[in-house]
Amino acid sequence: MTQLSTPPPAPFTSTSQSGAADYPGLDEWRSLPVSQQPSWSDAEAFERSVAELSILPPLVFAGEVDLLRHRLADAAQGRAFLLQGGDCAETFEAATADRISGRIRTILQMAVVLTYGAAMPVIKMGRMAGQFAKPRSSDVETREGVTLPAYRGDIVNGYEFTPESRAHDPRRMLQAYHTSAATLNLIRAFTQGGFADLRLVHAWNQGFTRNPAHARYESLAREIDRAVKFMDSCGADFEALKRVEFFASHEALLLDYERALTRIDSRTGLPYDTSGHFLWIGERTRELDHAHVDFLSRVRNPIGVKLGPNVTGDDALRLIDKLDPEREPGRLTFITRMGAKNIREKLPPVVEKVTASGAQVLWVTDPMHGNTVTSRNGYKTRRFDDVVDEVRGFFEVHHALGTVPGGLHMEMTGDDVAECLGGSDPIDEAAFEDRYESVCDPRLNHMQSLEMAFLVSEALTRD
Ligand SMILES: O=C[C@H](O)[C@H](O)COP(=O)(O)O
Ligand SMILES: C=C(OP(=O)(O)O)C(=O)O
Ligand SMILES: [Mn+2]
């Protein structure tokens, strides 16, 4: 399932990664403008937390990060497709075995749909095991005349609307680290320990409520079963089907945390941010001469940058020069989130400018963040049709320009929530009252996610 056309890099020989206290440039960001950072309440607790984080083991290893860069290079050239999905904001409370396995199963199901439809390897990546920090439009939230600091993700403060919970508590960085470690442990167990075996393609569907996408998936799973049995009787070796590669990603927003988890790789002597394999810079923090772009320009991980509707081709070129000066395959991913209404007009000039410069980036669509609206009953939501329309627009633009539509970035969950409107078993506003669980942005539920996978698989098949 993960057969790729280019060989992976040589296996890494050492996992030892030392602290990066004196490595030149890693602290340059501290002298630059920085936005969306917490105002910690307790300076001493902050120092202690950062000191502890700096000596804790890495969450991911440099060799894995290099392997991912290699995989992303394939996607940039149209030889693989990136599927990146998970919560808008993970929470400590929801880091349970059931919830995590539901999300992994959903991503595996989507990947099977995409792989089978498009006959292309799918790189599986969670917005998981570290997606705890949120940029917000406002520093505060007011409810019934009471104003408190906005919720900024579990790594900073609690969602509960009380002064105690909303205070910015640096000890939460340690809890984020340990929750990420536990989540990664489960991810590794699920994806390496037999659960991801392609012969269990039916089992992944069990426990999810029956719905139209579920039935369509079942019939695809039957086809895969038949193919697997045929190969089995031909004496094929199924070792490769037992495990899948699964990578962890999050927005690298909280720079004190990211810096504290940066280690020098013993093989290469270079810094890797070991908080996740892939890190992205958000739409609100991508200013060229500001802290986030500077810090991420200095670590070896593959980096993503979200690009909203106001980005210009020149902005994109400057980001490439800063983040990928060597033009290294797989290093840089642009995740466009322009909104269904804008994408067909705003994306082409940016892609054209990048292509004309000779740079090769991986183009990924995030059809969520440009399509957020407020429902009549006051919930942040997205219409499934708008999400689909942005995905279609993304494919249309790349097909017209002869460039590669290389991936899909989604806010989704394995749970049967009601947060986005529509789908073939439609969610309406009334359902929000009982089944809206997100603490930040609305996610596609299990069925909507599968439906999306079928739609994208059709778009990829037309390639
Ligand atoms: O996930 C993204 C952002 O954190 C979110 O869209 C910002 O939302 P807000 O406008 O509610 O702060
Ligand atoms: C904050 C996010 O997105 P953006 O930076 O694109 O608004 C997000 O991915 O949750
Ligand atoms: Mn979001």
TrEMBL record:
The record's keywords, sorted A to Z, are: Amino-acid biosynthesis, Aromatic amino acid biosynthesis, Cadmium, Cobalt, Manganese, Transferase
Is Nucleotide-binding one of the keywords?
A: no
Q: Which domain of life is it from?
A: Bacteria
Extent of Pro residues compositional bias: 1-11
Name one matching Pfam family: DAHP_synth_2
What are the required cofactors?
Mn(2+); Co(2+); Cd(2+)
Reaction catalysed?
D-erythrose 4-phosphate + phosphoenolpyruvate + H2O = 7-phospho-2-dehydro-3-deoxy-D-arabino-heptonate + phosphate
Region Disordered: start-end pairs: 1-28
SUPFAM superfamilies, from UniProt? Aldolase (SSF51569)
Q: Which InterPro entries match?
A: Aldolase_TIM (IPR013785), DAHP_synth_2 (IPR002480)
PANTHER family per record: PHOSPHO-2-DEHYDRO-3-DEOXYHEPTONATE ALDOLASE, PHOSPHO-2-DEHYDRO-3-DEOXYHEPTONATE ALDOLASE 1, 2
Query: What are the leading ranks of the lineage?
Result: Bacteria, Bacillati, Actinomycetota, Actinomycetes, Micrococcales
What's an example of a GO molecular-function annotation for this chain?
3-deoxy-7-phosphoheptulonate synthase activity
Per the UniProt record, the source organism is Sinomonas humi
Any GO BP annotation: amino acid biosynthetic process
Residues noted as binding Mn(2+) in the record, renumbered to the chain: 88, 369, 411, 441
Write down what this protein is called: Phospho-2-dehydro-3-deoxyheptonate aldolase
* Cofactor mode of binding and number, as noted: Binds 1 divalent cation per subunit. The enzyme is active with manganese, cobalt or cadmium ions.
EC code(s) of this entry: 2.5.1.54
Q: Which family does it belong to?
A: Belongs to the class-II DAHP synthase family.
Task: Locate the residues binding phosphoenolpyruvate.
Answer: 127, 283-284, 306, 337
Q: In which pathway does it act?
A: Metabolic intermediate biosynthesis; chorismate biosynthesis; chorismate from D-erythrose 4-phosphate and phosphoenolpyruvate: step 1/7
